[in-house]
Amino acid sequence: xxxxxxxxxxxxxxxxxxxxxxxxxxxxxxxxxxxxxxxxxxxxxxxxxxxxxxxxxxxxxxxxxxxxxxxxxxxxxxxxxxxxxxxxxxxxxxxxxxxxxxxxxxxxxxxxxxxxxxxxxxxxxxxxxxxxxxxxxxxxxxxxxxxxxxxxxxxxxxxxxxxxxxxxxxxxxxxxxxxxxxxxxxxxxxxxxxxxxxxxxxxxxxxxxxxxxxxxxxxxxxxxxxxxxxxxxxxxxxxxxxxxxxxxxxxxxxxxxxxxxxxxxxxxxxxxxxxxxxxxxxxxxxxxxxxxxxxxxxxxxxxxxxxxxxxxxxxxxxxxxxxxxxxxxxxxxxxxxxxxxxxxxxxxxxxxxxxxxxxxxxxxxxxxxxxxxxxxxxxxxxxxxxxxxxxxxxxxxxxxxxxxxxxxxxxxxxxxxxxxxxxxxxxxxxxxxxxxxxxxxxxxxxxxxxxxxxx
Length: 455
Description:
The chain is 39% helix and 15% strand. The chain contains 17 helices and 15 strands. It is globular. The termini are far apart.
């Protein structure tokens, strides 16, 4: 009889424990981030798909530069779903190669709610992006002042029925261009470091002084290097800006006017032709800089450099203290340089725009901005980054943030279309002696203007 009573009691107790466990699990789900599984959460049943471009990966991976483990975007998924109980976020991750065509295909077929979109100025006129100003206005907890100066303005674009620039994207990944230099070579040559805001004359003088046999090592050194191909148009335009010139005017194509044949552009191209005397051979084919960011570096000054080319590799190689950064050439108002990076946008046809807006705020929060910097070595777009301990450990980043706050040359629209490639081709023709600087720029002006008129 005792055995029978014990058996019934044990069965009842076990059942009671299961019931209590189930109730507790349900309470935990409602209170703390079930990562998409909370059926009773505030965002229950809602899902967004987020497209991201670059070296993002879902799972942890090894950084090819530092050799350290980098967390996958699954940590973003987990945190977002924790903050938004019941919601689910999915990712479409793509490489930079062919991203424009792939983005167009995705947005045409409505595959995602949120897009990382460097080409926002090309997509906004199609009417496929959600204007963000109404969302900003009705969200009292969101403030545009969190972003580095000029980042919001730089990503403004024209909608399909608007003549005024509007906000279609929030800054997500930052980017900038600047001048890098090797302090060790300057020391060995006895030349004063570049100033923070050098002029064309200063750069030319110091490049000339450091071209030849290094007085300490006896090795051949070159005073300067720049790409004569892909980015040469941006280098030339910045040279014009340093003389108070500009690439042109206008944003909408029916208003764009080019200044490719201006005296400032001509002076800049002739300056580049002169700088070839102090550069290694091969700049037109992106060669001659193979030793840059190595202990055997032989180039003193590098024009038109980016953070991805400089900051992470420098610290990974133990050269962070050896490299200096100066700003690109600026006009009399302190403005100049290339505006670049990646904003994030909401698709016009998204079925869950409120949740998509929540993702935009999340992606520009310190949690995500620290993730992209500390895990992937990408550039954050928020002012708070200047105070992060991880940034202070890599002080070169402070100069990058400075460069991000003063650009005037838009990567879009003209920099992503045929006029930019026409100008690049003509710069190459001048650098290789096929055309004079004046003839090259006149040809670039004529063909670019015709392209706009006939597009």
